[in-house]
Amino acid sequence: MCGNLGGASVLDVLRRSFDEPSPGDQGVLLGFGPGFVVAACKLTRA
């Protein structure tokens, strides 16, 4: 665990998701932080 990353958690999960990707995989990443910090990303593996 990395502690409270806030909106940067999306980038951390993105890095982890590319460890073993498969072509055509899809996903949605959401990160919530203190106060009202929200970040999102929709992914499709080519």
Automatic annotation (TrEMBL):
One function term, GO molecular function aspect: acyltransferase activity, transferring groups other than amino-acyl groups
InterPro entries assigned: Thiolase-like (IPR016039)
Top-rank taxon, per record: Bacteria
This protein's name: Beta-ketoacyl-[acyl-carrier-protein] synthase III C-terminal domain-containing protein
Organism (species): Streptomyces kanamyceticus
